[in-house]
Amino acid sequence: MSLMLIADDNPQLLNILSSAARREGFQVVTAPDGRWALECFRAQAPQIVLLDVMMPELDGFQVCREIRRESGVPVIMITARGEDFEKIMGLDIGADDYIVKPFSPGEVMARVRAVLRRIDRSGEEPGKLLQAAGLRVNLEDYSVSVDGRPVRLTKREVDMLWTLVHGRNRAYTREMLLDLLWGYDYYGDPRTVDSHMKRLRAKLDTAPHPAWEIRTIRNVGYKFEVLA
Fold first, then answer.
1. pLDDT in tens, 173-216
2. Given Cys at both, which of 16, 63, 72, 174 links 142, Cβ 3.0 to 4.6 Å?
3. Ranges of the chain whose pLDDT falls below 50
4. C-alpha angle 153/226/173, rounded to 5°?
5. pLDDT at 126
């Protein structure tokens, strides 16, 4: 039985989401603030995390950043506000999905199922290690290295790099990457892909990699290419 961590400072909402999660077959651990949530995460190792953004001690963004330094476990952010910059910030620091209050418990559980389906599909691919021209991408621990030099990336950046390397020499449109990495139910701007790609490239460029590159294909998208 999978364990879900739910962190929110609203006791009523915690009870509602906990009941919905248990009906879905999850074991549940709850936390009323961000610091407690992080302690529960480290002690309990849940399979999925629901994080409210506005919490005492540590906010949801801070907790998500800390989780991403340690794990690729799926994280869904919850907020009472729907500003685009908050959604982009949450996704940029590694959240897998973003839900705006008010919502129904059924909607939250549907998002949970969708995120877990994407994780399951990626796990069905043969192997979780890709290597190409000195680049090594490992989905077991979400580590990346270039010629043996570690490069620290967010979960989303690792997923993006894995997708490009796995389909090497194939051009991916921004819309394709949105569907593959954010899911078909994400109605974001394709420019989100460009902002992630810019950060991914900047981090990868800290280690020289003359044998490969991520190319921009004009009016199309991006392609991973091993250079002759």
1. 888 787 777 764 455 566 788 888 999 999 999 999 999 999 99
2. 72
3. 122-126, 184-185
4. 65
5. 43
Q: Are strands 135-138 and 143-146 parallel, antiparallel or unpaired?
A: antiparallel
Q: 82 to each of 15, 87, 90, 199, how far by Cα in Å? A: 23, 7, 12, 24
Task: Give the sign of the dihedral formed by CA 86, CA 81, CA 175, CA 172.
Answer: positive
pLDDT at 124: 42
Query: Alpha-carbon distance 102 to 213, whole Å?
Result: 43
Question: What is the per-residue pLDDT for 72?
Answer: 76
Alpha helices in 24-132 (DSSP H): 34-44, 60-70, 84-92, 105-123
d(C-alpha 156, C-alpha 134), whole Å: 21
Phi, psi at 196, each rounded to 5°: -65, -40
pTM of the model: 0.57
Measured at the CA of 130, the angle between CA 184 and CA 153, to 5 degrees, comes to 65
User: In what helix (H) or strand (E) does residue 77 lie, and over which residues does it extend?
Assistant: strand 75-79
How many angstroms separate the CA atoms of 129 and 166, rounded?
10
For residue 195, what is the enclosing H or E element?
Answer: helix 191-204
For residue 137, the model assigns a pLDDT of: 92
Helix (H) or strand (E) holding 223: strand 221-226
Helix (H) or strand (E) holding 182: helix 174-182
